[in-house]
Specification:
The chain has four helices and 14 strands. The chain has about 270 residues and is α+β, with helices and mostly antiparallel strands. The strands form four sheets. Strands 2, 3, 4, 5, 6, 7, 8 and 10 form an eight-stranded antiparallel β-sheet that branches. Strands 1-9 form a two-stranded parallel ribbon. The chain is globular, with a radius of gyration of 20 Å. It starts with 14 loop residues before the first helix and ends in a 7-residue tail after the last strand.
């Protein structure tokens, strides 16, 4: 492996978008293949998130305490390490939610392609492209990326198959083999079918006490989310808002490139009486 020194055209997140005005609300990226991702990383580890460290106003990163579970390639990391990701969620008054950068729950098991920063913290390679979360699925444990609020550039079709999930055990074996110098074709990717190639996750700015991104995990297991409408409708509208809602839900559900499944389940009284 070689030390990560620069972004390659084939896999770089759009860094300029992250570093510009705070009003930016989206992030575009070009998918990188796993061979290049591996070769550009200082190492690859599997780790468990122990805690999210408190943020202060003015902090530019969220720091997580990690327990290193296994080293798949690179240096001999062990014990506790810190992972630093751009953006904050828990500062007292001022936070910066960066599109494409997930907030990681305590107890999450992650796979990290990393480089080490000047402070000693670990950083995910290419912002979020080097960060995977372990989760169960009907096909067994899989690794997925959580790229909320971001979009993949359309012209990188040569790396389309790397937009999907990885079968966890096979992926780890492939990485360990490559770390020992054995290079072979990936055997951990699912066969691509229409509508299953890209894992798209929804992003919303929910009204929590500390604003942050929200994600619906039901789509990962092909569950449908029901939506309801206020029976009184929306004030000052000149169109049928109930029809508009159903049209919007159908547009998401019928998008062949995503796994988003939404349904309309009628109206619900939001007055608190039901």
């Amino acid at each position: 492996m070689r030390t990560f020194l620069r972004c390659t055209r084939a896999g770089c997140m759009t860094l300029a978008l992250l570093m510009c005005a705070s009003s930016a609300s989206a992030l575009s990226y070009i998918m990188i293949n796993d061979e290049d991702l591996f070769d550009q990383a200082e190492g690859v580890v599997r780790a468990t998130v122990v805690s999210e460290l408190p943020a202060r106003d003015g902090d530019g990163h969220t720091r997580y305490a990690l327990q290193i579970d296994s080293v798949l390639a690179g240096g001999s990391l062990s014990g506790k390490q810190h992972l630093s990701l751009p953006g904050t969620f828990t500062a007292p008054t001022r936070n910066a939610v960066i599109p494409g950068i997930p907030r990681i729950k305590r107890g999450s098991e992650i796979l990290l392609f990393y480089r080490r920063g000047d402070s000693g913290d670990l950083h995910a390679l290419h912002l979020s492209l080097g960060l995977f979360g372990l989760q169960p699925s009907p096909e067994g444990n899989i690794y997925v990326r959580a790229l909320e609020g971001s979009s993949q550039s359309a012209w990188d079709s040569r790396n389309l198959r790397y937009s999907t999930f990885r079968r966890a055990e096979l992926f780890e074996h492939w990485l360990a083999d490559r770390g020992r110098g054995t290079k072979r074709e990936p055997d951990y990717l699912p066969e691509l079918t229409a509508g299953s190639a890209i894992s798209k996750f929804t992003f919303a700015q929910f009204a929590f006490p500390v604003p942050g991104p929200g994600r619906w995990f039901q789509f990962d297991s092909n569950q449908t989310l029901p939506w309801t409408a206020n029976p009184s409708g929306q004030a000052n509208t000149t169109f049928n808002e109930f029809t508009a809602l159903q049209t919007a839900l159908s547009a998401w559900t019928n998008d062949a490139g995503s796994r988003i499944l939404l349904s309309y389940s009628g109206t619900l009284n939001f007055s608190g009486n039901q």
